[in-house]
Amino acid sequence: MSAVLHDYWRSSASYRVRIALNLAGIAYETVPVDLLANVQRSRDHLTRNPQGFVPVLEIDGLRLTQSLAIVEYLSETRGLGLVPADAPGRARVRAIALAIAADTHPVCNLSVLEEVLRNGPADEQEARRVHWMRHFIRRGLVAVEALLEGPRTGRFCHGDAVSLADLCLVPQVYNAERWGAPIADLPRIARIAGAARELDAVRVAAPEAVRPATQPQGAGGLSVRK
Predict the structure, then answer these.
(1) Which residues of 13-26 are buried (b: 16+ CB within 10 A; e: fewer)?
(2) What b-and-e string marks burial along 168-192, b requiring 16 or more CB atoms within 10 Å of the CB?
(3) CATH match for 3-80 among 3.30.470.30, 3.40.1120.10, 3.40.30.10, 3.30.750.24
(4) Euclidean distance between CA atoms 217 and 210, whole angstroms
(5) CA atoms of 14 and 5, how far apart (whole Å)
(6) Mind listing the pLDDT tens digit for each residue in 67-112?
């Protein structure tokens, strides 16, 4: 194998990197990091990534962390063109990507939600968990829908070619669907996510397509990176 990806099947950040690896045609070995079993906090994984996050990509003699940094590395070294060549385009694509990856996804991380639920009544935890996820996922995607307004949006988030923004959007839509966040009123997002999911590179990166045999359908808890 030319690369090793330490990931979790339902991690949004890992999902982004899997899509990029597929777009680049890079064969890779998957090393599962079970977030629900706290493997991300093990000594071995903290040696790979002191933050205790997934994914970690070992490629080209490097050990890379942070999904957006990994995706941009793959784009630059494999000529994927996931970030536009023009400065205004780069700014727009990164703004959309970061609206999801920096402002929406982290609030729904396992460690954040664990802390939120820690002091509440045990019998209300599941209802509070679902409310939290639906609220923040929807709030983020409503903003992204507005960012997609205008002629620069095409078949995908920025024109008619897949970009870093699309690699962030698809996993977040998956999270919205899992948690029942209401997004039926966001037509641009629905159209773009639908077009992206038609791509083989996206389809084979989907969580259900890479779910380990040891994880039964419906298992996996939160769609988070740590």
Answers:
(1) bbbbbbbbbbbbeb
(2) bbbbbbbbbeebebebeebebbeeb
(3) 3.40.30.10
(4) 12
(5) 9
(6) 999 999 999 999 999 999 999 999 999 999 999 999 999 999 888 8
